[in-house]
Design goal:
- With 204 residues, the protein is an alpha/beta fold.
- The chain has 2 domains: 1-27 and 109-195, Rossmann fold (3-Layer(aba) Sandwich), CATH 3.40.50; 34-107, P-loop containing nucleotide triphosphate hydrolases (Rossmann fold, 3-Layer(aba) Sandwich), CATH 3.40.50.
- The protein has helices spanning 14-25, 32-39, 47-54, 67-74, 78-106, 138-149, 153-161, 166-172, 184-197; strands at 2-7, 28-31, 111-115, 130-135, 175-178.
- It has a 5-stranded parallel β-sheet, with helices on both faces.
- Helix 2 (32-39) packs across helix 5.
Length: 204
Amino acid sequence: MKVIGITGGAGSGKTVILDYIEKKYGARVIQADLVGHAVMRPGNTCYDSIVEVFGMGVLAEDSTIDRSKLGRIVFADKELLEVLNRIIHPAVKEYIGREIEKERKKGNAPFMVIEAALLIEDNYDAICDELWYIYASDEVRKERLKSSRGYSDSKIEDLFRNQLTEEEYRDNCQMVIDNSNSNYRLVYEQIDKGLMNSTLENHI
């Protein structure tokens, strides 16, 4: 069973790609961000470490971690953000590695897709057979982030500065999907072609 890693900047439209691959090809899709939420829940891997480092002030009334409170703390302090990343990212990667092995043993999924914002930085190439970069122009990404998330220009600029450059994404990925166009048919055609031309052709 092959494993594709998918990444790209905020607003590049990765969710559209994942939904299409999951529905058309029956692939098992895992989003690292959602796994990150899970490992922060009470009783799970990272909960105690986060409370120990950041204090009870990051908890909601139901004793779960309030991610908005935690976010305000770490995005105002890069050192604290790095501390949080060192707690969460290894746990997320370990969870995903276990899920890959489970799927391989079950043999039900034709292939797996792992989506992670820090796919390259966290060296997911060690557990993925190939990496895909979902590209969209900066202008398109800005408009999507404004309309879908209500982000301000300054927040978007800060977000872009903290992500890899287009060149870095392209240098580290074997496949590029251009998702700048609002015509999703053109995007789907790229995905179909990419899957058929890749090492996955005997698995789908």
